[in-house]
Amino acid sequence: MDKVLIIRYGEIALKGLNKRFFEDKLVKHIRNAISDIGKLKVYKEHSRIYIDFNDEEYDEHDILDRVRKVFGVVSVSVAKKIEVNLELLKEMAVKEVKENLEEQEIKTFKIESKRADKSFELNSLELSRTVGGYVLSQFDDIKVDVHNPDLTIYIEVRNIAFVYSKKVSGFGGLPLGTNGKALLLLSGGIDSPVAGWLVGKRGVEIDAIHFHSYPFTSDRSKEKVIDLAKILYQYTGNLKLYSVNLLPIQQEINEKCPEEEMTILSRRFMMKIAQRVALDQGCEALVTGESIGQVASQTVKSLHVTNNAVDLPVFRPLIAMDKVDIVDLSKKIGTYETSILPFEDCCTVFLPKHPVTRPRLNKIIDSESNLDEEFLINEAISNMEKQYISLDR
Ligand code: ATP
Ligand code: MG
User: Fold this and answer.
1) For residue 247, how far is its CA from the centre of ligand 2 (angstroms)?
2) pLDDT tens digits for 271-327?
3) What ligand 1 atom has the least distance to the C-alpha of 295?
């Protein structure tokens, strides 16, 4: 039958003069998210976005799941779309109850109507009562409860009518591309994908850079990062992944600098390389998954020394989050199962036995003076690989 996906957005509606700009971006991203499943009409009306489709031709769960992930979307509902006719409305409400009964036990319900078309014969209250009365007459064991019903059926009457019962949450945030672009330092761990997702949710486009130590780290660990990037892509779209071999740099550090500074020096190189790539690719900030005190390289002193390596703003959305909460979020966005796959990370290759936890900036800079930094960074970038992430749906 004819259906419509109702898409609600929140925060962007508050943006005053920018409203149009934000809404147009949102419509564009929704179109992109479903572009490969067919020519569907996506349109904006009454501060909501709609997608018309027929459920015999299209998989409504697929459409809903894709649209739900678009940043800026607050909630979505699949509604039956019918002509304005009281008998038809009654029938559809009963159908809606039946469909819900297949999934859950329902003892109580209510009808919530909105009559936007004032020429319709009943006002909102009368419509709810009439349809509610009809539903009651069709089922033996359910009652009306207007305060805390198991099921709410929504009816909207405009020049056409909608009947639906479920509101599925989106993630909110702002449409991508309304806040520039940032480069995410993407490891294979749990934290960095979540960090990239959070910044993306604020409307920032995301590209990613990954450091490996091939052949000390395997091809499989590279693939794991590509898999993570593909999950992020479902939210951020258009993701480019840069892969940089850090091994030559790690070997130089290993040879010429104190062992306990290995991690912090590597981290500074990562930041510097990331900054070069960012500036070259039009990214205005870096994003990392650091969180205070999580590991030796994330003490406040270490963060100071890492931060000092670059001038670009560094966004660390996880900075004050506990690991359990980060894990929860990674499960919600779908990166967790991939993140926990056991493949080696470049940082584990030369892991010092006793890493510095209170590095002094001048001491670290002093150690770096033993290295030909310019040469090492240039070499790393000239050997860098670039990959456009896409989905094999
Ligand atoms: P994650 O779970 O994101 O790997 P972590 O808890 O293991 O983080 P670190 O290894 O100290 O912490 O890394 C801190 C941050 O530095 C990461 O969140 C990521 O942004 C960046 N980073 C670390 N290793 C890499 C890497 N191999 N490639 C790209 N970025 C990295
Ligand atoms: Mg890590």
Assistant:
1) 16
2) 999 999 999 999 999 999 999 988 777 889 999 999 999 999 999 999 999 999 999
3) 11
Q: Is the peptide bond before 215 cis (omega within 30 degrees of 0)?
A: yes
Strand partners, 210: 243
Which of the ligands is closest to the CA of residue 295?
A: 1
* pLDDT tens digits, 225-260: 999 999 999 999 889 999 999 999 999 999 999 999
Ligand 2 centroid to Cα of residue 311, in Å, is: 23
pTM of the model: 0.90
Q: What is the pLDDT of residues 94-146, one digit of tens each?
A: 999 999 999 999 999 999 999 988 888 899 999 999 999 999 999 999 999 99
Quick one: tokens of 320? 């004050």
Could you tell me if the CB of 316 is within 6 A of ligand 1?
Answer: no
CB atoms within 10 A of CB 255: 9
**Hey, what are 357's tokens?**
């936890």
Going by CA atoms, what residue is nearest to atom 6 of ligand 1?
191
Work out whether strand 48-54 and strand 2-9 pair parallel, antiparallel, or are unpaired.
Answer: antiparallel
The answer to whether the CB of 345 is under 6 A from ligand 1 is yes
pLDDT value, residue 13: 55
- DSSP three-state, residue 174: strand
Cα–Cα distance measured from residue 289 to residue 316, given in angstroms and rounded to the nearest whole number: 6
C-alpha span between 183 and 75 (Å, rounded): 28
Whether residue 23 has its Cβ less than 6 Å from ligand 1: no
At residue 196's C-alpha, the angle toward residues 193 and 199, to 5°, is: 150
Domains annotated on the chain, with CATH: 2-169 (3.30.2130.30), 181-389 (3.40.50.620)
The alpha carbon of 347 and the centre of ligand 1 are apart by a number of angstroms equal to 8
